[in-house]
């Protein structure tokens, strides 16, 4: 019996161990990368808010253009104040009132005439687009004049020659007028890209004529009204 038990124990000892259940490892957690948050642009700059604007047909667009034009005239008057500091006194007010007259005359006389001519050529230009372009051009002119005003005030007051002061003042006016005219032509010329080739050609001649007229009118107004050039003493 003992031999039989030993034999049974020996068989039991040689038996393979029972397989143990292996638990598969947990899959790694999926790491989700959050999409980058859009950068906070903050409030628009003064220049962007002055030169920007919604579509022509948006509610309040005409009011925004009017405010933009009024701001442009105020910045132009600031340039007049700066060049009037050379003589001081009442001359400051005369210069401040004379500088905004040129963009006002171009917008009041030249832009309506240009709109009528473009309408005769069947150009895709409507009154809100013309008003918006005029406001954009005046705003650009005002921004340049307002930016030059501090440096111009320093130069005209320290210049020993009145001719040099008048030349620098005129150079600032020419620079601002060129930028304003470029902005106006770019704004009013954008819708013309949808027109036919013949309309674009005729409109191009009209815009070139307007550029010459606006330059001559601005020069005439500034030369005859600004005391630093000898006008309207």
Question: What do you see in this structure?
Answer:
- With 233 residues, the chain is mainly alpha-helical.
- It has one domain.
- Helix content is 69%, strand content 0%.
- It has eight helices and no strands.
- The longest helix has 32 residues, at 127-158.
Order of helices and strands: HHHHHHHH
The total of helices stands at: 8
* Shape, principal axes of CA atoms: globular
- How many domains in all? 1
Average pLDDT number:
81
Task: Tell me what portion of residues adopts beta-strand conformation.
Answer: under 5%
Distance between the termini: 143 Å
Tell me which oligomeric state these chains represent: single chain
Share of helical residues? 55-70%
| Model regions low in confidence, pLDDT < 50 over at least 5 residues | none
Considering the chains and any ligands shown, give keywords for the structure:
233 residues; mainly alpha; globular
List the helices and strands and how they pair.
Blueprint: H1 2-14, H2 46-51, H3 61-84, H4 90-98, H5 101-120, H6 127-158, H7 162-189, H8 197-225
Summarize the structure in short.
It contains eight helices and no strands. With 233 residues, it is mainly α. α3 (61-84) runs antiparallel to α4.
């Amino acid at each position: 019996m003992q031999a039989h038990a030993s034999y049974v124990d020996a068989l039991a000892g040689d038996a393979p161990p029972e397989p143990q259940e292996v638990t598969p490892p947990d899959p790694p957690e999926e790491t989700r990368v959050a999409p980058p948050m859009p950068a906070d642009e903050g409030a628009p700059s003064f220049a962007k808010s002055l030169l920007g604007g919604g579509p022509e047909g948006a509610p309040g667009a005409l009011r925004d253009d009017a405010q933009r034009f009024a701001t442009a005239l105020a910045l132009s008057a600031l340039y007049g104040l700066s060049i009037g500091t050379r003589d001081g006194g009442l001359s400051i007010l005369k210069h401040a009132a004379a500088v905004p007259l040129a963009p006002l005359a171009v917008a009041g006389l030249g832009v309506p005439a240009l709109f009528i001519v473009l309408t005769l050529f069947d150009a895709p230009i409507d009154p809100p687009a013309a008003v918006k372009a005029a406001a954009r051009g005046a705003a650009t002119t005002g921004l340049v004049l307002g930016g030059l005003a501090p440096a111009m005030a320093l130069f005209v007051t320290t210049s020993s020659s009145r001719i040099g002061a008048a030349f620098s003042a005129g150079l600032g006016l020419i620079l601002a007028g060129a930028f304003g005219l470029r902005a106006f032509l770019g704004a009013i010329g954008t819708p013309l890209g949808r027109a036919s080739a013949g309309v674009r050609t005729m409109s191009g001649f009209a815009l070139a004529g307007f550029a010459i007229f606006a330059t001559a009118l601005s020069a005439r107004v500034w030369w005859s009204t600004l005391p630093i050039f000898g006008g309207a003493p």
